[in-house]
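JOB MANIFEST
job_type = single_chain_structure
chain_count = 1
residues = 231
[input]
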Amino acid sequence: MHGNHPINIEALLTHIPLFNGLAPEEIARIARGTREIHANKGEILFHKGDPCNGFHLLVYGQIKLAFTSPQGSEKVVEIIRQGQSFGEAIMFMDKPYIVFAQALNDSLLLHVSKNAVYDELDRDPKFSRKMLAGMSMRLHQLMNDVESYSLHSGKQRIIGYLLQQLPEDEENGVNVVVTLPTNKGVIASRLNLTQEHFSRILHELTELGLIVVEGRKIHIPSVDKLRKHEG
């Protein structure tokens, strides 16, 4: 990774939801076990099978978690966004990584060491609850994904994904623009679709007048009509 200008790790940690409510001295202790990682677009943070010695927090940028099948095709498991963390469960299991992580954009991450986490868990039961809540949310999302892959059509998955990207104040709006966070191939893999299938469905939705595709920008003339088509 690349060392740029020094950053204030303690200040960054105070803005991470996981550490909300921790006292300055607690933040200081965690900061001592935290290092910054600058990753250029396309850079690999870790490979499947690498040892896991802590977990990551994404300050800015975008990270892809994925694995490669024996046939060589890639399956995107998750797209990590600003403020999210990843790797906690593997850290607690004391197992090597089961996916690889790659920067989709230039990114800044914090890596919190396992020892720093364990020391704070021993000191503060509230921190334990926050860690459990974070991992429970991740498990809940995984269950939602399994349900979607099993029970929903490709079209339903894509419409559901577009609706998730809506700004909070535009959930029933008209002439709304959604900007896809990354390229269509990555999103297709995340939704368990081939890129060809993904593009074909976007074309179908365009022909139905439900969306207009302009690169990564998806124009939605009527959110309500798109939502009704999901069912």
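[summary]
The mean pLDDT is 86.
DSSP finds nine helices and eleven strands in the chain.
exit_status = 0
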